[in-house]
């Protein structure tokens, strides 16, 4: 298996090898964003890649949006598309070293790109990065966890046992508005930080 480090991801973006990239905001996340009324909340999108959800949030008037990726190539593409996005809100850094707090974190193909042995660390870091009552919202792939990836899959029961120690599970169910290629393969979730 490849070492899924900074150079691995940088090379994937340079070579345009991005099978996960749909070139637009994910429909389930766009639908969720459309229901948010408080545009002052502080939002993080980790492993943002080309950050189409961040672009959509910015266009909708959310000004406290932060994008994080350690592959600068991906975020350069985002900055070219959204030139008025503040440079100070573009974070080129390892997710596991980030120290800040957010009201909302959006998950879109970041969790599935991590090697599975990092999943517990991911959950703990998400818990640390959220303010009290903060929410982690997004999509998880719903297919068998294989040794080869990314993407790495999982199932509802596994995700429940992984997240429940740190989060109140408000929603964890099959996504009803996935793109055709992902229908039946995505779970939409809303997890709230436990104190």
UniProtKB/TrEMBL annotation:
Keyword Hydrolase on entry? no
Gene Ontology biological process terms from the UniProt entry: methylation
**InterPro entries for the chain:** SAM-dependent_MTases_sf (IPR029063), TPMT (IPR008854)
Gene3D superfamilies assigned: Vaccinia Virus protein VP39 (3.40.50.150)
Listed A to Z, the keywords are: Methyltransferase, Phosphoprotein, S-adenosyl-L-methionine, Transferase
Q: Which CDD domains match?
A: AdoMet_MTases
Asked if rRNA-binding is a keyword of the record, the answer is: no
Please list the GO terms describing molecular function. Answer: S-adenosylmethionine-dependent methyltransferase activity
PANTHER family in the record, alphabetically? CYSTEINE SULFINATE DESULFINASE_CYSTEINE DESULFURASE AND RELATED ENZYMES, PTHR32183
**Name of the featured protein:** Thiopurine S-methyltransferase
